[in-house]
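Bench notes, afternoon.
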Amino acid sequence: MRKLTLLLLIAFLQLTLINAVKGQLKRSSVTSDYKIDLSGKWAFQVDSLDQGIPEKWYKNTLRGKIILPGSMTTNGLGNDINVNTPWTGSIEDSTWFRNPEYEQYRQPGNIKIPFWLQPDKYYKGAAWYQKKVTIPATWSKKHIELYIERSHWETIIWVDDKQIGMQNSLSTAHVFDLSNELSPGEHQITIRVDNRIKDFNVGQNSHSISDHTQTNWNGMIGQLFLKAKPLVYIDDVQLYPDIKNKLVKAHVQIINRTGKIVSTSINLLAASSKVTTLKTVSKKVSVAKDTVVEITYPMGEKPLLWSEFSPDVYKMQVRLATAANEKDERSVTFGMRSFSSQGTQFTINNKPTFLRGTLECAAYPKTGFPPTDLQSWMRILTICRSYGLNHLRFHSWCPPDAAFEAADRLGFYFQIECASWANQGASIGDGNPLDQYIYDESNRIVKAYGNHPSFCMMNYGNEPNGKNLVKYLTDFVAYWKKKDPRHLYSTGSGWPIISGSDYNSTPDPRIQGWEQGLKSIINGESPRADYDWTNIIKKWQHPTVSHEIGQWCVYPDFKEISQYDGVLKAKNFEIFHDQLKKQGLGNLAEDFLFASGKLQVLCYKADIEAALRTPGFGGFQLLGLNDFPGQGTALVGVLNPFWRDKGYITGKEYSQFCNAIVPLARLPKMIYLNNEIFTVPVEIAQFGRQELSSVTPKWSIKNDKGDVLFRGELGTTNIPLGNTIKLGVIKQALNSITKPAKLTLAVSVAGYENSWEVFVYPAVLPKVNQEIMVTNTIDNKAAETLNKGGKVLLTLKKGALKGDKGGNIAIGFSSIFWNTAWTHSQPPVTLGILCDPQHPAFKEFPTQRYSNWQWWDAMTHSNAIRLDSVATDLQPIVRVIDDWVTAQSLGLIFECRVGNGKLIVSGIDLQSDLDKRPEARQLLYSLQSYMNNDKFEPNLKVDIQKIRSLYQTRPEPK
């Protein structure tokens, strides 16, 4: 019996393989019984002068050729890029058009733009696509539709010489009824696609159309076919799950094109790979022209509930049969889930959840348009999950169906937007055609994708502008809350906040706000990890999602250039690389990437943990997990636009502080003296599958070698779902730490671990050689000391450095926020420090190659010194990483010989308020110890006037 079963199984698998191969062959063939695949070669012609309609091109055969699905760019069609290319999108870094340093990149044959990725070809305007089809006799008296899964974007259709209509959705398929025109026989289908902003302006920076990300392409992608249906057919199925009553309410829209009343039978059967006990539910109904049939479908005693932890989906098979034996059917994916809220927190199936999201901005360098296949989206979402995320916000665009299907399978919560960023030249609510378009587009979106359990949230789009936007968006939210309870609705991403929204989106809860510069939490307040957003959100009654947190930049990865082998090229990276090499710093590119990357991660960790520490918080949306290639090049991702990591953090490491379960330490500070008691409250954000029972949180403190210095437990407990769940307080004396040390605090709970690096310095330092002169100016005494062969430490006060020597460079602790081009050099404009940790100058000041919390004090009490103003070959002890656009050679600390003596110049103030600045006191001691050592032997000789010319001088006392 077992052998027979095995043979049957083998036969079944072989048959399955054969059918799969046949299916693949059939998919690539021209026609099936009731479907004609239109992919492949089409006739094509550009209509740059808009002559096609008056000249009736639809009556003729177009001259060129193109392959669809695809765009003009993927087919190598369009115009070469030049200084007059009519881009779609705001260009804030417009100096490219006139700045002499970009002159070489404005020359024909060497066009390189810095503000976004550069397409091989570009075209904006009308283009015509044409294909001859043969309609089989079996299609007589059928309803025939032309299906274009995604077009960019306005399409006008002709069959032979008859115009059928126009569609302009940016988010859903363009479907045309061609029943009356496609009689059996040969016909010519002509499609005019226009990618210009026309009747309605969604906003030139909207990611649905903009060259900032997916490009303003012209073409048709995804599925492209003709389909024949019976004259009585299923037009739409919308399923409304009710998990409380364990049922689904189905709204089945039936279209009757016979002109007669037809008796029909509708059968529903839900199926899942895990459930086989569900039964068919039938309903007989007489159908006139258009009818919506409501059917209640019971889901059994224990329906599978969909969530991020159990992404169980069902397929509802809807079959229609008429008395004349005409049949039609529709298979619809859905999930038994309730995405809602309780108070100020989101819930999934009545359990609290926390949105850990990133933006999806439609950046696809290979093609210049989004993928429509399931495999691509499964890859993207799997990577997002590996970094601890459970949520994607689609910024001013809506993805194709394959994205929803992938999210359904993997358990991702989607926020969808109606293809608009009505700002910078566009507005909402002011009576423009966009106002109606948003309603039309949102209805198309919900009809097309509303059944997917992953479709959880929707708003109009991004950061709106308009005098009447509040009234308009208040009405928009009310409209959708009344019409469809399956999703949560808000006004727009960023603003405005209204009482009628299901949730709030606001940029207020984050550690760096727009235009805060050096006054933000991370740049303006001493390092700590105990703040949260309670005072910000307490005035609101609904869940709050922090809008576009992070935006922390990293240096360009020039190895990435070779990955751009599709239609978009990283010419911006080529410009930045040229600039770095021009400054003689090309050999430091990899070091800049790694060091700035580590600082970037530190900033993201601080942002994310602040959100997780906030009681009753809804979640966050990063900008972003991967890079944003436009708006002047915003390298804000730990992943590149291809969703590949850059070598300085893995998903496993990132998910320690970004996950469903994250231990949190409310550190009151990051810098300690060894006469203090290390006192740290410990809590947890626990949004896992279920309550954790009888767990024992553990903590340890290790030194830089990995040796455990202290450890302990916080007591066995049960941990419910939620956050700000207190686990206990760590109290540890630090008096056994006799030398300066970097320590790592780790807290682990039920297999989840998070860690923080802190620094401990001796409360009492030994005396140093008094012969080393510490001064903030090279006065006569300092000059005499140097002339006599002495040692001088010049420590400049913040603001003393001359502007042209680096004093005009706004440095801070964090990396660059978004980028300098789009923010008009909002500070800080640097990316942290780079140094050699083994340099003897750091023997008493433990450091890594990059900025960590112990450098916060230095970066906020200093100016960066332009090293070329001292010497072209000056190699500093501590380097500051400049913005990649300017790529200046900058330093904080360097050494040299002056006269007969030896000098260290510090752009950091190491004299003021040292009793309140333990890091500065320790760094000063470490530099003095180094200067007192025989290893202090600088090679470079610098004229004393070069040093004096760095800073603002004061008259010498007489």
